[in-house]
């Protein structure tokens, strides 16, 4: 029996992981909990109930020249290599005003009123470019009339290939990873030229809160997770270290313990960037992928977003990859 177990690499990996878990639990009883321990459930009476408080200032607008664009479904196949239906923004150096520029004049982003932009600018641009018949601006008087007006609205914002594009907005921890990856690969100025970086800076400044931090998502109060990642992003796209936004961001982080109190994903990106030690991060063992797929905790059984995140994280953790800037 033992010979059969030790002759199988998958079985050996299973035994090793199981022993490691047991050993970690035993050692934890003597040395206390790890710094990254998420904590026990918080009693209802002790929960901190905070709401986001945004700065009361004039929203930053992106420079003229941006135009919404939709990746159209190619006609040659049902499973194209390019992503269809994705809403993107393209920048043109034309001197004429685009539909986005005109839409910005009509829809002022006010995060203190509603931090979720709700795709207002994109929809306004689609409505402005609509050349077909428009419903009456008068309020509907019957349910049927209201339904018809709703149908007309969605007809006007429908894309050319029949689908409805939408902004995947909300989380504040996705954009930082993209910017950091572009930076450490040395292609940030190619992937994100000047207008893109300035637009990102305007977005981050609009979502910075009264206390200097950023939330985990657009409707969240300031968190260390959102603040650490978005502060780094703001600096990578060109914000000066002594700018008011950066000074306020550092003040928030210092007053709340710094990056040590950020969750593992934030620490992971900092380690990849080379500004945080890998020793301060909870292990992400790639050996987990060697387990047999029937094992309940095999990463391949995780939710799709989870496993697709942890697969590259495991590889980078195994390599202890850390960006080193050129001298």
UniProtKB/TrEMBL annotation:
<keyword id="KW-0472">Membrane</keyword>
<feature type="transmembrane region" description="Helical">
    <location>
        <begin position="6"/>
        <end position="27"/>
    </location>
</feature>
<dbReference type="GO" id="GO:0016104">
    <property type="term" value="P:triterpenoid biosynthetic process"/>
</dbReference>
<dbReference type="InterPro" id="IPR018333">
    <property type="entry name" value="Squalene_cyclase"/>
</dbReference>
<protein>
    <recommendedName>
        <fullName>Squalene cyclase N-terminal domain-containing protein</fullName>
    </recommendedName>
</protein>
<dbReference type="GO" id="GO:0016866">
    <property type="term" value="F:intramolecular transferase activity"/>
</dbReference>
<dbReference type="Pfam" id="PF13249">
    <property type="entry name" value="SQHop_cyclase_N"/>
</dbReference>
<keyword id="KW-1133">Transmembrane helix</keyword>
<dbReference type="InterPro" id="IPR032697">
    <property type="entry name" value="SQ_cyclase_N"/>
</dbReference>
<comment type="similarity">
    <text>Belongs to the terpene cyclase/mutase family.</text>
</comment>
<keyword id="KW-0812">Transmembrane</keyword>
<dbReference type="GO" id="GO:0005811">
    <property type="term" value="C:lipid droplet"/>
</dbReference>
<feature type="domain" description="Squalene cyclase N-terminal">
    <location>
        <begin position="161"/>
        <end position="325"/>
    </location>
</feature>
<dbReference type="InterPro" id="IPR008930">
    <property type="entry name" value="Terpenoid_cyclase/PrenylTrfase"/>
</dbReference>
